[in-house]
Write a structure and sequence with these properties.
Length: 233
């Protein structure tokens, strides 16, 4: 049974109203690709604002502290889980990824590549929806061709698998088919600190065969890759 947490998503913020815990978002239309590329260059390696671009519409979003906390905590949990399984992976965080035709670009909250690290897009992306609104992220991910996307919305995680007809929500992840969300939700309630790390290591003890465990879960590499794949329809 899922653990119910009390961190509801903030619905659309009315124009002119300030909500301290909400994400800050600006959406602009009729933005050329050249203009968008100039914005990306001026942003450089800064984490904020996060950018989303789809066929001339640009979204700039500065995540709230609560948004960042959830995303990073979920990333830490998945790092430990994949290492626990002995998977070969890398966590690329908010990697700026684009479609092959440059019509879509997005920066996930967290993203993963399994196996071959020369891929031009992640196998798995994580999106935290703390404040609703903005560009429909699954439309962007479909253009890019990301096989699997997870959403955290109102303390519930859902799995979305890319098919020829678009994304289909499924009961289980294909990148982490054995993961029980009942093991994840209690960890998400904890602040990232000694208590969280102790609970994380108890839940997903990293095997001795994993490499790089002592330094940081984000840099763990292991022995094999999961079978992340598109759906048939």
């Amino acid at each position: 049974m899922a653990v119910v947490m009390k961190r509801p998503t903030i619905d659309r913020v009315p124009p002119g109203e300030h909500v301290p815990t909400a994400d800050e978002r600006i959406v602009m239309s009729n933005i050329s690709r050249d203009t968008f590329e100039a914005i990306l260059r001026s942003k450089g390696e800064k984490r904020r604002p996060k950018v989303t671009y789809l066929e001339g519409t640009l979204e700039l979003m500065s995540p709230s502290r609560q948004h960042e906390q959830i995303g990073r905590t979920l990333g830490d949990i998945l790092n430990a889980y994949f290492a626990y399984l002995g998977l070969e992976f890398n966590n690329y965080g908010s990697w700026t990824v684009s479609s092959s035709d440059d019509k879509a670009t997005l920066e996930p909250d967290e993203c993963y590549v399994f196996g071959d690290q020369s891929k031009h897009r992640p196998d798995l992306a994580i999106e935290v929806v703390w404040t609703s609104g903005g560009i429909e992220k699954l439309d962007v991910y479909r253009h890019i061709g990301v096989p699997e996307v997870w959403f955290w919305i109102d303390d519930v995680i859902t799995f979305h698998i890319l098919t020829d007809a678009g994304y289909r929500q499924e009961e289980r992840s294909r990148c982490a088919p054995g993961l029980e969300l009942a093991r994840v939700y209690p960890l998400l309630e904890l602040s990232r600190g000694p208590v969280f790390l102790k609970a994380l290591r108890a839940e997903f003890p990293i095997p001795e065969r994993a490499v790089g465990v002592a330094s940081s879960p984000r840099r763990v590499t292991a022995l094999r890759a999961p079978r992340c794949r598109r759906g048939s329809r």
